[in-house]
Amino acid sequence: MADHETLRRYVRRLDPATRSQLIVDNAWLSNSETVARRGGAAIGIGVLAGLMEEFSARLDTWRDPSTSDGWLAPRLHYALRLTRAEASDPDVWTWLAVRFHWYVEWRWDGRKGIVENRWRGEIHKQAFARLWWGAELFRNGADYGPVVRAFIRQDLPNSYLHRPLVRCRSLALALVDVILPRDGETALSADDVNDLARVLNLVTAGSLPEVQTNFQRDDSRNLQTWVRNGASAADWDELPVGPPCADTTSESLAGGRMLAERGREFAHEAAERLNTRSAKRRATATR
């Protein structure tokens, strides 16, 4: 494969001026090296390039750039076959952001320009990493349906992607159901979503979520097989099929749901106590 058809990473951190010059010069290969797997195999990005070309043709489809996340995230994950170790390299995501800079500019250019962490940042901030990791963590094995739902609310990926607790897939799936219920119940407010994240951080600090989900482990074997097989061109109108997994048994899903609902109850009780104390202080101040 030619260099422009393979995944690359920057060999040193780019300062904003250098990055801007690479974009102006259309020279994203500069200061970069090929990402190679064990044995020296390169990672092709031909399918990803085709996906991004398709995406660029659909820009008028979305009333707001944020509403495109649920469409792009699962398809990006399908097209860019990475292990979690490969996806943990921030310089890979920086290279992709420069390679497809038009997407970063379209999605994230605001009144103050593009915040630096959209180019290189944590996985819940960086433009492409948040989509790939969102799909990886919120998929139910081969089913990307929960990923689409997870990106309906920006506060869900923003508040949870970087938290270790969502590495437990059964809990991650339960959070999608609790925050965005299917049965018509009122979805949680933004404050409720953030409160639940803080409570679950405390709850799982003393007892890891895997305890409630039967010590579930990531199904790395199926993921590795899926990654090695590589992506093929797809009908992007259809939701693709992801890697299968054996880590979401009915028992583990029930445990994840119990933990998420317990966290929601604790968060609700804590919010009510806080509101009661605030009301008492206001009443005392007006006497």
Low-confidence stretches: none
Topology as a string of helices (H) and strands (E): EHEHHHHHHHHHHHHH
Label the overall shape: globular
Biggest beta sheet attributes: 2 strands, antiparallel
What does this structure look like?
With 287 residues, the chain is mainly alpha-helical. 54% of the residues lie in helices and 2% in strands. It has 14 helices and two strands. It has a two-stranded antiparallel ribbon with strand order 1-2. The model has no long low-confidence stretch (mean pLDDT 88).
List keywords for this structure.
287 residues; mainly alpha; 14 helices; globular
Topology summary:
Elements lengths: L7 E3 L5 H10 L6 E3 L11 H11 L12 H11 L4 H4 L2 H10 L1 H8 L20 H10 L6 H6 L4 H6 L8 H11 L10 H17 L2 H4 L7 H10 L20 H36 L2
Antiparallel strand pairs: 1-2
Helix pairs in contact: 2-3, 3-7, 5-6, 10-14, 11-14
In a few lines, what is going on in this structure?
Helices cover 54% and strands 2% of the residues. The protein is mostly helical. Strands 1-2 form a two-stranded antiparallel ribbon.
